[in-house]
Write the structure tokens for this entry.
Amino acid sequence: MATALVLFSAGQDSATCLAWALTRFEQVETIGFFYGQRHAVELNQRDPLRSAIAELNPKWRERLGPDIEVDLAGYGALAESALTTSRAIEMADNGLPTTFVPGRNLVFLSVAAAHAYRRGAEVLVGGMCETDFSGYPDCRRETLDAMQSALTLGLAAPMGIETPLMNLTKAETWALAHELGGEPLVQTILEHSHTCYEGDRTHRHAWGYGCGACPACELRAKGWLEWSRSNAA
């Protein structure tokens, strides 16, 4: 396939998706978003993580194209959540976690599709996942299928949405990274990616940097432990 645009936040999932895309597409570009997130430190990791992944494989280096970062702070202010303001991370009365940013993936995909259209890319790649479902309705494949149809209709051009992690647990995501790039890719993700909701890059754990207490850290740590045990067996 020709060109893909990866939604690249510099987290574990998007890093794995970038490596996945680099093995399958002739040209791969990336896009990231600032939406007022408390863990905006992730944006600082985008360039070093992109570069480190590209250097792991000559073909990946050749295939990796431009990156763009889009300011969506206005949207983030409207879609207030525990990821954009100093609110407690807990379950809300509507049954969703307070970290849910309403419509985030829908906004990201719309903006990414507009950029992809201009760049001649027909595929968007995202790290959305149902298996480790956090209560985010915009992570469901059903939602993304509807979005894919809407984008294709609205652009009058094919616009696919690939979600290679959709049916994987976090442990299986670590396994996929190892399958794609071996130990060097795993170590690159450990050292350069960022997932922690609190934006903590002062504490280094076996699974990478983070506060170790927020839901993102807990999920990442749990997956790392499960994969490490199975990999050692």
Remarks:
- The first helix runs from residue 12 to 22.
- The chain has one domain: 3-194.
- The mean pLDDT is 89.
- DSSP finds nine helices and seven strands in the chain.
